[in-house]
Each structure stands twice: as C-alpha cells, then as structure tokens.
Amino acid sequence: MESSDRRKPPLRLSAMSTIVSRLDITQIFCDVDDFCNQWENLWQQVPQLPSTTGERRSTSRMHLSEVMTIVIAFHGSGYKTFKEFYTLDVLTRWHKAFPNLVSYTRFVELMPWCLMLLCCFLHTRTGEITGISFIDSTPINVCHNCRAHSHKVFKGLVQWGKNSVGWHFGFKLHLIINDCGTLSIFTNSRKCR
Fold first, then answer.
1. Coil, helix or strand for 55?
2. Apex CA 71: angle with CA 65 and CA 77, to 5°?
3. What is the pLDDT of residues 72-125, one digit of tens each?
4. What is the torsion angle, in degrees rounded to the nearest 10, for the CA atoms of residue 80, residue 81, residue 83 and residue 84?
5. How many DSSP H helices and E strands does the chain contain?
6. Beta-carbon neighbour count of residue 142 at 10 Å?
7. Strand stretches in 38-181, DSSP E
8. What is the spatial distance between Cα 13 and Cα 92, in angstroms, rounded to a whole number?
9. 189 — phi, psi (to 5°)?
10. Angle at 181 between CA 180 and CA 182, to 5 degrees
11. Tens digits of per-residue pLDDT, 122-149?
12. pTM
C-alpha cells in the first residue's frame, strides 16, 4: 500500500465532515446563547432555595450554550453515534469555535444539565400553523420488549402499543410540520397506538 493511500481519510469520515461543515454552527450558537442569556436573567429574578451548608457547586469550563450547540449540531450531522461525532469531529476540528472543549466522558456528564433548556429552546423554535400540515408519529421505546415486565423507571406512565412495525413498550412522539417544513407542534403520548 502506498503512503498516499494511507493518508486519505475513509469515505465515511469525509462525507460526514462535509455534512457537518454545511451546518451553520455560528448561527446555531448565537440563537442558543441568546436564549440561554434570557433564561439566566429570568432565573436570577426567581427566588432560589437557600444552599445547604457544605454544598459543593461545581462549574464547568464549557458554558451551557456551548454544550447545547454541540448537541444540536450532532442531530444535524448524520453521525450514528454521539461518541463518533464528538471524538472525530468536535475534538479535532472545533477548537477554534469552542476553546474550552472537555473530554468526551466529561461532556457526556454535562449533557443531562442541558436537557430541560433544550426542550424549552425547541418550544421557542416552532413555526406557524399555515393551514397545510403533515402529521407523523414514531414510538419511543423505553426498553426492549422482553424487559417490559421488569421495567421500573416509567412504571405507570408507559403502555403497550402496536403500529405497522409491531409491538412497542413506551411513549409515542407526535409531530406536526407545516408546508414550509418547520415544526409546528409536537407532543408525546403514553400509548403507542
């Protein structure tokens, strides 16, 4: 094998890089950062519970808006796993955009902290109902079907349901998209019917 053949990136990696480079990370970050700043201003106006003595508050090098931007970019990237996206693309190419990047393990620890804000941010990005809408739904399994009898996390909240693919144990996500292609309404239900 020649040395020039060894230097060529695999086709999959170069194709994913092209998809990720088409995302406007700067625009996504600006929108998310503006939302986070507004959220923090509102949060500081609400009375907070007092801290307990000896409570340790750890801070991260990365701001919450940076974490949210990377999570949003992953969903538009085309990568199948977040680990592949973060280690192959973010850590190697995004140091200029995010100078305080953390390791993959630490980033995974930070992701649950941004879940609530991501949901709120998504609600601010819904489009108008224009008259013509497309409706679809998809099941969200909470566990494998053979483990449903022993599942405890969502006990009493999820149920069995059936669709064209088969039986599912979990929630069902319903989406309504307008004729412009923007998300109008989304909700989830307990039954997968």
1. coil
2. 130
3. 999 888 888 999 999 998 999 888 889 899 999 999 999 888 888 888 888 888
4. -20
5. 8, 4
6. 17
7. 133-141, 159-162, 167-178
8. 12
9. -125, 165
10. 95
11. 888 888 778 888 888 888 888 888 888 8
12. 0.66
